[in-house]
Amino acid sequence: MNHLLRTRDLSVDFVEKVVRWAESFKRRPLEKNPLDRRSLGLLFEKSSTRTRVSLEVAMVELGGHATYLPKHDLQIGRGESVDHTARVLSSYLHGIAMRTGSHETVETFASSSSAPVINALSDEAHPCQSLADLLTLKEVFPNLSDVELAWVGDGNNVANSVIEAAALAGIRLRVATPAGYEPDPSSINFAEERTEVVLTGDPAEAVEDADAVYTDVWVSMGDEEERGKRTRDFEGFSVTSRLLEGAPGAKVMHCMPIQGPEIEEKLVHSDRSLVFQQAENRLHASKAILEYLIS
Ligand code: CP
Ligand code: NVA
């Protein structure tokens, strides 16, 4: 049994296979039924549109079933332990996707679970997003090792996983964050062992001649109390047409949801935007992940 907790736990072969399977699910969405009578639990502590719905639809389209388990409706929401919950749920379900505040919770759950656990976003990682993003990048840039990807904004959960996925695909990275908002050092170390990585505090330096520029919200779920401080600290890190004058050919990426200040809305709807393609690709990547882990 395998869990999917962080992108950096994956091998290059696994990542290539998932992207290939996702491409084939996208071309022929309803050809296979590999998850007949399989059940996935979706144990979520936080809101979700893309992750939840893509996993639910993927289960149904692959012949299985998904059951949504918001934390406050389970006994875990009243204090039942993570260990007991994992042991019981994994005796009913073939897989559990979890969206938690603390990454430690998903690690603890996985260590007690007899079924595969998928990290559907923690405070440290968002592996499902990063695999879908590799599919999107591959659709636009078939030779990923030629790609230069700039990350501009918060070095958050999505940044950590996108950096790790890019490194596994041989994509070169330039990462611009304000001081104090850098990605997890272990994600950077992982990337530096595999590809070129430039870390800077200057968004213009990061985006210069990049092929794609990726950003995410400045205020992630759980960071709401810091909104005022973050809004001040991230000034100058908006992805705007002006910033992209230094990268005339660059595509723009965002995992969604979009809050506003981190990217100009007209860019999201422009012909350089990959944003909605990324969102659609969550479904195809979810299918590939589920087929691999729970069929
Ligand atoms: N990108 C992403 O994970 O979106 P949701 O929060 O809507 O699942
Ligand atoms: N960084 C964001 C991503 C949401 C998909 C958050 O954690 O809220």
Summarize the structure.
By secondary structure, the protein is an alpha/beta fold. The chain has eleven helices and nine strands.
Task: Describe how the helices and strands are arranged.
Layout: H1 12-27, E1 39-44, H2 50-61, E2 65-70, H3 82-92, E3 95-99, H4 103-112, E4 117-119, H5 127-140, E5 148-152, H6 157-169, E6 172-176, H7 185-192, E7 197-200, H8 203-207, E8 212-215, H9 227-233, E9 251-254, H10 265-268, H11 275-294
Parallel strand pairs: 1-2, 1-3, 3-4, 5-6, 5-8, 6-7, 8-9
Helix pairs in contact: 1-5, 1-11, 2-11, 3-4, 5-6, 5-11, 6-7
The structure holds phosphoric acid mono(formamide)ester (CP) and norvaline.
Residues 48-51, 121, 129, 255-257 line the site of phosphoric acid mono(formamide)ester.
Can you characterise this structure?
This protein folds into 2 domains: about 5-125 and about 280-295, Aspartate/ornithine carbamoyltransferase (Rossmann fold, 3-Layer(aba) Sandwich); about 130-280, 3-Layer(aba) Sandwich (Rossmann fold), CATH 3.40.50.1370. By secondary structure, it is an alpha/beta fold. The termini are close together. Strand 3, helix 4 (about 105-110) and strand 4 form a beta-alpha-beta unit. It has 11 helices and 9 strands. The strands form 2 sheets. Strands 7-6-5-8-9 form a 5-stranded parallel beta sheet. The chain has a 4-stranded parallel beta sheet with strand order 2-1-3-4, sandwiched between helices. The protein has helices spanning about 10-25, 50-60, 80-90, 105-110, 125-140, 155-170, 185-190, 205, 225-235, 265-270, 275-295, and strands at about 40-45, 65-70, 95-100, 115-120, 150, 170-175, 195-200, 210-215, 250-255. The protein is globular, with a radius of gyration of 19 Å. The protein binds phosphoric acid mono(formamide)ester and norvaline (NVA).
